[in-house]
Amino acid sequence: MSIRSFTLSRSLVRNLSIISLTAVILAYSVSRMTLPAPATDISASTVKGKQTAVLSGGCFWGMEAVFEHLKGVSDVVSGFSGGSAATAHYEVVSSGETGHAESVKITYDPSQISYSQLLKIYFLVAHDSTQLNRQGPDSGTQYRSAIFFANDEQKRVAQAYIEQLNKAHILHKPIVTQLVPLKGFYAAEEYHQHFIDRNPNYPYVVVNDLPKLYQLREKFPDMYK
User: Which of 53, 133, 142, 220 is 20 to 30 A from 97, comparing alpha carbons?
Assistant: First the structure.
């Protein structure tokens, strides 16, 4: 089971203010690192209507919250990609043996936000692309960094950006993000959807996810909603 799956004890409730303070300190100590804009993108003129992107990078609660706060994004769903429909259930995926990764499916308007802009936020804010099969306190292949591309254009742009970032040596380690063809996305259980909106004081969220929203607002104020 994930470290996220714990019950709020009295001691945790009592110490929530301390945890919140820790989160604020973490937020203010976030790296000043910036990333260059992707050198290539998918032209908005070549696509019609809303598009989707499926990304994985650790706990889907935080990933979902980051992309929900972007202008041009109309919907974000937490779920699973990489395995079969039969095993796309949280309790089973948490074993790390299903091939699934916790993922988010992002529906966006390319006339307002581009695929490459989503990728920049993915690499800079949403997760650490240099951690192999883990994110922060969570470990296992279900927490791997992966881009599930829906077509050749998404693959081309994502691959080019990874190569661009690796060549620039901006990150402290090589990127381990996988590029995988999207074969299916399966929505997670209802209680996982919009989890942070409904549970803003959950200790895991306070420590691990709220600092990401702070960083998003600080680094992308024109895109934040």
Answer: 53
Asked whether 213 and 225 are in contact (CB, 8 A), the reply is: no
Q: SS3 of 107, please?
A: strand
CATH number at residue 176: 3.30.1060.10
CB neighbours of residue 25 within 10 Å = 10
Strand partners, 77: 105
pLDDT band for 202, please (50, 70, 90 cuts).
Answer: very high
Domain count, the chain: 1
224 is a domain residue: no
Looking at residues 54-77, what average pLDDT do you find? 98
Our answer to whether residue 208 is catalytic in this structure is no
Tell me, what amino acid is at 78?
S
* Euclidean distance between CA atoms 24 and 32, whole angstroms: 16
Residue 77, domain extent: 10-219
Helix (H) or strand (E) holding 185: strand 185-187
Q: How far apart are the first and last CA of the chain?
A: 33
In sequence order, the β-bridge partners of residue 107 are 52, 75
Phi first, then psi: what are they for 90, rounded to 5°?
-50, -50
Helix (H) or strand (E) holding 204: helix 203-208
Tokens at 215, concatenated: 């960083």
User: pTM here?
Assistant: 0.89
